[in-house]
Amino acid sequence: MADAEAIAVQSVWRGGEHPYSIGSKKLGMWLFIISDALTFSALLMAYTYVRLSTPDWPKPFIFNPSIIFSTIMTVCLLSSSLTMVMAVHSMNHGNRGATVKWILATMVFGLGFVGLHLTEWLKLIYTEHVTIFSNEWGVPLFGGTFFALTGLHMTHVIIGVIYLGIIAFAVGRGKFKYEDVEVSGLYWHFVDLVWMFIFPLVYLMSARI
Amino acid sequence: MSNHSDAAVEHVGGTTQSFITVWVALLALTGVEVFLAYEQLPTLIMLTALMGLSVIKAALIIGYFMHLKFEKFSLFLTLFPMLVLCILLMMIFMPDSIRAMIMRVQ
User: Residue B85: its chain A contacts at CB < 8 A?
Assistant: First the structure.
């Protein structure tokens, strides 16, 4: 057994049967992230196709409040990624108390993002009369693509907040290991990553100048 | 399997200072994006510039926050070339969007 492990360590794959030298949970999350990235890529491509093929695409996002709100939402997600990476860092050093605090900070930023996003949605629905099927500008695909893209992303954020809540609760009770926190962090960073494409494509490209 | 997980978790990537530096860089790039949105640029040039900046931001997040920079290169090779290829293949539809726009204008 010891010989087999020694051979595995010396091999070019450094790990033998575990070629990536990471745990199965982490590899599973990476594979999920790649498949989810393809889903969002397809939606973003569809949005871009419709955006480019429609000459009179509506530009409902005025600077105050829409662009300011969406920029603050971006800052919220970027800051939540920083707090999440600090949570992973703390867990790696065995500091469970700090890990829970950093995860809770991440959840606060996530909830802030959801709150601002819902405000933006309600403004569009009640002030601009945008629905999934129609709007005042005669470009029904605007609402369909906007709500599908941002709705799927917001669903990911809400699931992420619940996921982090479970992780924080378990870590606080002395359960779960470093890898579990790191895997939840991977998911959260991915949610942040997707927004880095939605924000410019959906909001900034449709900013009313 | 549990032994495997325990052995795999001993993994440290990045320092607090590097995380804060990346965060500041991401905020700065976001500021540049908002600034560009209010420049009078043609749609395609604007799209290219904003997506270029987004790719840089994505690389920073994946490399530092998701720790991929500190993982084995084989993990990157397994995951990302396939993803990039699939995304590039999706772009095959994009020229058709310009054709559709010209047809609508005519």
Answer: none
CA gap A58, A81 in Å, rounded: 32
Q: What is the dihedral of CA B76, B81, B86, B90, to 10 degrees?
A: 110
Q: Is B36 on the interface with A (CB under 8 A)?
A: yes
Same domain, B48 and B18: yes
State the ipTM, two decimals. 0.87
Using left for φ > 0, alpha for ψ between -120 and 50, and beta otherwise, residue B81 falls in: alpha
What does the pLDDT look like over A104-124, one tens digit per residue? 999 999 999 999 999 999 999
> How far, rounded to the nearest angstrom, does the alpha carbon of residue A128 sit from its chain's CA centroid?
27
- State the residue range of the domain holding B1: 1-71
Cross-chain residue pair A13–B16, CB shorter than 8 Å:
no
- What global pTM score does this model have? 0.88
Euclidean distance between CA atoms A89 and B12, whole angstroms: 8
CB pairs under 8 A between A and B: 164
Which domains, and CATH codes, for chain A? 23-206 (1.20.120.80)
User: Taking CB atoms and an 8 Å limit, are A37 and B66 in contact across chains?
Assistant: no
d(CA A73, CA B34): 13
**Token representation of residue A81:** 């990624």
Interhelix angle A140-172/A178-198, rounded to 10 degrees, is 160
